[in-house]
Design a protein that fits this description.
174 residues; three-stranded antiparallel β-sheet; transmembrane; Pilin-like
Length: 174
Amino acid sequence: MGKMNQNKGFTLIEIVVATGIFSLVSVIAVGAFLISLESQQAIVAQKTVAENVRFALEFSSRQMRFAKSDEAGSCAGAGIFFADGGNSIRFLNSNETCVSITLDGERIVYQEGATSAIDLTNVSDVRVTSLNFILNEAGQQPRVTMIVEGVSSRDPGLLMRAQTTTTARNIPVG
């Protein structure tokens, strides 16, 4: 009987080819994972900026909606609802306390009377680059348009612009 080749196993070339294919598949999978992770982080940063800006707009709108006419002139001026414009606004709230909403550096700040200021935006998440109040008291119903622009603190390329218009509802009828 002839001698048969009893060697069982893989040749060096087979092992090198298999390792190369496995490495290539691993690099592609890791690359795809890293790209999806970066996309997810960008989406979270964008969502956080939107939430901060939306909260500041909604909170401010709610406060301005119940503003009262400053008959005594102690806050906004005699007989008017809103004062200042630009990057700040003052008005009397429903408790007849003078309220201000202001751009302070890169954050929106709410202050009621002599109390300490409250941040409406979180500087670690969003930097407010622009805040503008456009006042319109012509006619019966005073209006304020609030325009906010902010960028992500983590990714300055993520920009959010939002605007809302609010009317004061506490109008004297007569």
